[in-house]
Predict the structure.
Amino acid sequence: MKFNHMAQRVAPEHFDSVVAMFQAELGFVELRRTGRSVWMRQPGTNVDLQLNHSSETGRDADKRFSQVSFLSDTPRAELEKLAGWLRERGIAAEVGSYSEREFYLDAPEAFVDFVVEAMLPELADYGIEV
């Protein structure tokens, strides 16, 4: 088997805004859409992101361990920019940190089971060729 995509859940009332954020701010392209899901890809990558409508209201206390993760030389600043974009659209958003090199964005009303993570590129330098 070959890894193809990952799927995350988004509250239906914020679904279009979250999709728009990934497109407008992170350059994702919509590949396919159904009534309750969208598949997207960021140009230059080969793993897709599927977002699904979910009416689940009980959020896991440890959802920060489920991330859609990005590399950035300025991870906190990038996430603060996304948080501002969401807030401008009426979606509460907060940026926190796991360490001095890795940060997360949570929009608790919108992201059901994940956060958006950004970390310094050095954290993805594993020293192994794949």
Notes: The first helix runs from residue 15 to 26. The chain has a mean pLDDT of 95.
